[in-house]
């Protein structure tokens, strides 16, 4: 019930960022914990955000010729083991099915931690000639990784994701696909999540188990920590060789295709919370908000008010917006707080005095600003306001990223940054694993990525002092 | 490659219906077998059909206020066991996770065979007052049931489905929901799959483990066997009591909500194959066809042909249709066979002579009829043809159902029907389990359902001869 349920205060982000985050997850009704330790339930409001993410992203994938498929959830151990690096990377966190009904299985089956092996197994069965290439596949599903410590959206034993898997005739085409999908993710973060990212390449230490190269988008949360928000991998022909995936090439000889994979997850919802949220709750970018506009009648018992509110809803829906009219018997004040908690981008208030004046009040979730607009032409006013909300959210996040990215020269400076306000440290790096490990040990940061935009200037490695040119980002990561 | 790949003949359905079915699954590229015994892979074309089914059905669910959620894939054994009938019904076919990483789990976890228990667990945690009711939830996911013998779409160890789960304040509301969703399924089968169904109630023997009542839609395949195509269950407050799901009612007392669940699966794709397919392959109803119209240029090297074909594609897409232009270098004859195998409802052919006359040729997949139509106004011609294809497919399937449903009076007549041509036997039934079991033993049929449309006439039970009024359907089922 609405009235029984209080919109409770949440912990302020300045007091306890982690608790603030968990409070939003629970109080905006995004998730619930379950009887299965480390697993989460996506409640209707949380899942509706994920549906919007899926719809937009899936549309982008299809524009570039990708097709969806569904692979088995369980992978035989022998199949998983054919590629040594992958299985070593994932073995410690695999959930194993060992019984079917009352029978012990002859071979245990892994609940997929990722599906490269299943796709290779399938391609081994269906690929024959270069004319079938490229094969551009994707699947939406959940995966399980047996994490020790878990947090909603950020790290849970099961999470929902998409995993793209493609094979190509040439290494160049596969590299181009890897890059295209990284850009697809970055554009999605900008246009749908109002979230700027740093695009870059992972170091060998941080790359995906079995990949030749891993590319990543890294975003900065309001607590100035890094969140890896999507990755795109280039495998060369390593898995093709391990799984005997071959095709007859243009030269009539048997060849191995070149492979990519790329993924984003429900973690993006965590990114949105920590990029835009505030002490009143969630703040959602309009593109993924389940409710873009909430209409709230004020003094709803007065003649004409409810009818006018209903008409506003009808008109805005006809303009293609996702609208909710809350005509429940809760007080307007309660409703304001409730939809602020849920991050609804725009609120429309209408009462008897507005009706007289032929106007209504629009309130923005991001800035709290209110404005009165004429009911005539309301649609375009709301559309503009939604665009303004998106743009402002992006600008704020970009400012946070820029203000808290520091060009530093020594590990001592990086350490000081971490211990004071946090942020991204941009330094040079000599390329040695040793220095990467020392940076972690001495300054408490992991390498986030070598940005695709390299400055080309010369500097020194902040650990060993060697002259070098490679730019790299460091930070404390989720 | 297209040219390397022959469109091979498939087994004729008259020679071997089971092999004909499997041939279509493979040669229309709907599925592939995998390295995991009893599991299937949904290939792009098969998954695209499922995506269309999902999109349409999900839209219908949302119109009646249902919301999607995501529940954990794994269920603790103790949770599963709280409701005795359910666990007894499913225990023999559950896949058990017993290891997480290298650690043996303290309690084994079932890969969900169905999720009533998880929904109850969640409701136990979030439900407080009658004002929160009804909760109308659904999830799209896969489930695992460890079947001994498997067939693509019809019976496999993993399948994809939607499972709706709802709770209500009163028994009446829950019963109304059960009925509404059964009707939703029947309407979907008629409007999207061009498939008539018999709506009815299952006998106690055939109902879902733990349900108070199970309703079903039963369809008849071209081999006159029955396919259970969707079910809707009413649970009363049995699970609520077992899982301690309670709310404060209008009378301020603690009450148990009344519950339903309802599901349809990728089995519907099997139903479509066996309802509409023929010896040239798949025949898809337009509403769920990934490609509704294929455009094939004839003598494509002649001036203007390819351009005209491309323009037709553009125009038909602008009219909202799903269109593929096949401008590959395969012969038109090969292409005709290929898209017949894939069940594309309408083919547009255009060659130099058509161009001269300002026309093109339309060929229907269902009847093979060809007609020449003017390029002007092509959109409406194609739209009408797609409607005609749908209507004809439905009419054919309805004729098959009606022609092969027999009103019979004794088990001997039912046995004779089964041994000659098959079909549905409609008889009276006294309601005794004993007679139902004897019918199976003596005539080889299972009860399909007691139709919602009861004639009300009196007759005799075909087994014991007792006077009774209940109508019931019998058949050999998949």
TrEMBL record, chains A, B:
One of its GO terms (molecular function) is transferase activity. Gene3D superfamilies: Anticodon-binding domain, Bira Bifunctional Protein, Domain 2, C-terminal domain of ProRS. It is found in: Cytoplasm. Residues 42-285 form the Aminoacyl-transfer RNA synthetases class-II family profile domain. Keywords: Aminoacyl-tRNA synthetase, ATP-binding, Cytoplasm, Ligase, Nucleotide-binding, Protein biosynthesis. It holds the Pfam family ProRS-C_1. Its main location: cytoplasm. NCBIfam families: proS_fam_I. This is Proline--tRNA ligase. It comes from Dysosmobacter segnis. The lineage of its organism: Bacteria, Bacillati, Bacillota, Clostridia, Eubacteriales.
């Amino acid at each position: 019930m609405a009235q029984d349920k209080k919109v409770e205060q949440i912990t302020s982000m300045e007091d306890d960022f982690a608790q603030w985050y968990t409070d939003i997850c629970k109080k905006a009704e995004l998730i619930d914990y379950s009887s299965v330790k480390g697993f989460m339930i996506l409640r209707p409001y949380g899942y509706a955000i994920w549906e919007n993410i899926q719809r937009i992203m899936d549309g982008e994938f299809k524009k570039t010729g990708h097709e969806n498929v569904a692979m088995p959830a369980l992978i035989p151990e022998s199949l998983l083991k054919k590629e040594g690096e992958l299985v070593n990377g994932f073995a410690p966190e695999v959930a194993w099915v060992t019984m079917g009904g009352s029978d012990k299985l002859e071979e245990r089956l892994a609940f997929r931690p990722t599906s490269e092996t299943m796709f290779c197994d399938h391609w081994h069965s269906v690929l024959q000639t270069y004319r079938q290439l490229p094969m551009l596949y994707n699947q939406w599903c959940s995966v399980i990784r047996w994490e020790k410590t878990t947090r909603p959206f950020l790290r849970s034993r099961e999470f929902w994701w998409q995993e793209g898997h493609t094979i190509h005739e040439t290494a160049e085409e596969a590299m181009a696909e890897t890059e295209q999908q990284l850009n697809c993710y970055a554009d999605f973060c900008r246009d749908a999540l109002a979230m700027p990212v740093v695009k870059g390449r992972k170091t060998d230490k941080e790359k995906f188990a079995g990949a030749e190269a891993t590319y990543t988008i890294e975003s900065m949360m309001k607590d100035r920590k890094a969140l890896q928000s999507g990755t795109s991998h280039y495998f060369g022909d390593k898995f093709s060789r391990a799984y005997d995936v071959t095709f007859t090439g243009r030269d009539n000889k048997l060849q191995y295709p070149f492979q990519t994979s790329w993924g984003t997850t429900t973690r993006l919802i965590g990114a949105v919370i920590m990029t835009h949220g505030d002490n009143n709750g969630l703040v959602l970018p309009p593109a993924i908000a389940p409710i873009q506009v909430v209409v709230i009648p004020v003094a709803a018992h007065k003649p004409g008010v409810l009818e006018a509110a209903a008409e506003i809803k009808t008109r805005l829906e006809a303009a293609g917006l996702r609208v909710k009219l809350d005509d429940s018997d809760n007080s307007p004040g309660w409703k304001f707080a409730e939809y602020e908690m849920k991050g609804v981008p725009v609120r429309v208030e209408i009462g008897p005095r507005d009706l007289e004046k032929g106007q209504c009040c629009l309130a923005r979730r991001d800035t709290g600003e209110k404005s009165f607009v004429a009911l005539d032409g309301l649609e375009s006013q709301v559309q503009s306001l939604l665009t303004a909300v998106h743009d402002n959210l992006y600008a704020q996040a970009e400012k946070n990223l820029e203000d808290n990215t520091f060009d530093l020269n020594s590990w001592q400076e990086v350490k000081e940054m971490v211990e004071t306000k946090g942020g991204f440290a941009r330094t040079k790096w000599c390329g040695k694993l040793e220095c990467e490990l020392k940076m972690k040990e001495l300054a408490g940061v992991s390498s986030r990525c070598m940005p695709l935009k390299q400055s080309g200037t010369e500097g020194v490695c902040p650990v060993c002092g060697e002259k070098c040119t490679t730019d790299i980002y460091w930070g404390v990561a989720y």
